[in-house]
């Protein structure tokens, strides 16, 4: 099934920290790349930092998103930001409008809060992916996967390679994202149910102490007793600096349940080679079917 059609528009937005002026060239490059793919790019007047890390208030950023949802010419929305501010927009989004105007919504890192909130409130799948990868250090590969998967009905952008840590098979709808940012939803109406889900966790920054803190909070929330499986993405700082215990050993120690299926993949995270995960997708992973994305 083709998800994006040529000769239609996509919206570019920043619901988290405002972009720096040095990133303006990146956005302009994105516009050129998308045009070559046959897509018109629309972006709001406010995208770049004006005051500290802000480019607009929480209410203003939420309105930018709602305007895109109500614009019939826009078929997909890509958030190109990250940082800390995304959860501020959640109370100001109209989930009834989002539900009645289903569109593809993409974001990663701090946008873990928005992609999961939209899924929790509307049951619509969302996409954990950073569009800026199309003009990053692996631009040619990313552009190829983007076009093949989203515009030609393929699957390469969604197909990640897991390594089994424990267990043999897992099945459930995927929730999660950045290990720190996703925790901002704890105790709110925007947190998806974990019952029978597959939890994805990845991280850009953070040492052993921070990872242990986050993992213990998930454990104390009862998450590891509810999910059907755990996907560990790329933990950039942990892996690049070779911290000990490594992230897999730390997870196994804190989870403390050898019956919980766990896989590790470096195909999902903050790297320029990162692939896309569908939040809300029913996913099956199993050794019997091969170590691939079967869902």
TrEMBL record:
| UniProt KW keywords | Carboxypeptidase, Hydrolase, Protease, Serine protease
Q: Does the keyword Iron-sulfur apply?
A: no
What positions does the domain LD-carboxypeptidase N-terminal occupy?
10-127
- Residue stretches making up the LD-carboxypeptidase C-terminal domain: 171-284
Supply the Pfam families for this chain.
Peptidase_S66 (PF02016), Peptidase_S66C (PF17676)
Highest rank taxon of the organism: Bacteria
Per its UniProt record, what CDD domains does this chain match?
Answer: Peptidase_S66_mccF_like
Do you know which Gene3D superfamilies this protein is assigned to? Class I glutamine amidotransferase-like, LD-carboxypeptidase A C-terminal domain-like
Which InterPro entries does the record associate with it? Carboxypeptidase_A_C_sf, Class_I_gatase-like, LdcA_N, Peptidase_S66_N, Peptidase_S66C, S66_fam
Give the UniProt family note.
Belongs to the peptidase S66 family.
Q: What is this protein called?
A: LD-carboxypeptidase
Q: Which organism is it from?
A: Turicibacter bilis
């Amino acid at each position: 099934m083709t998800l994006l059609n040529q000769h239609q528009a996509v919206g570019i937005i920043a619901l988290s920290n405002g972009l720096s002026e040095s990133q303006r060239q990146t956005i302009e490059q994105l516009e050129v790349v998308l045009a070559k793919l046959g897509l018109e790019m629309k972006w709001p007047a406010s995208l770049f930092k004006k005051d500290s890390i802000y480019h607009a208030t929480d209410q203003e950023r939420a309105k930018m998103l709602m305007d895109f949802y109500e614009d019939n010419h826009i078929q997909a929305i890509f958030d190109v930001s990250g940082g800390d501010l995304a959860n501020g927009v959640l109370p100001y989004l109209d989930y009834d409008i989002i539900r009645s105007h289903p569109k593809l919504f993409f974001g990663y890192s701090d946008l873990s809060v928005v992609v999961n909130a939209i899924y929790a409130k509307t049951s619509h799948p969302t996409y954990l992916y950073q569009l800026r990868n199309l003009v990053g250090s692996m631009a040619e590969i990313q552009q190829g996967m983007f076009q093949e998967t989203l515009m030609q009905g393929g699957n390469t952008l969604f197909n990640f390679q897991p390594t089994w840590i424990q267990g043999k098979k897992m099945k459930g709808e995927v929730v999660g994202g950045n290990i720190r940012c996703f925790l901002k939803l704890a105790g709110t109406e925007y947190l998806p149910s974990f019952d029978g889900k597959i939890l994805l966790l990845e991280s850009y920054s953070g040492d052993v102490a921070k990872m242990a803190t986050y993992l213990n909070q998930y454990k104390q929330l009862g998450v590891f007793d509810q999910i059907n499986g755990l996907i560990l993405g790329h933990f950039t700082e942990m892996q690049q600096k070779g911290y000990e215990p490594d992230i897999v050993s730390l997870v196994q120690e804190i989870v403390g349940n050898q019956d919980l299926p766990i896989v590790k993949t470096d195909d999902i995270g903050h790297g320029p080679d990162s692939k896309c995960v569908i939040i809300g997708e029913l996913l099956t992973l199993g050794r019997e079917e091969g170590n691939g994305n079967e869902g």
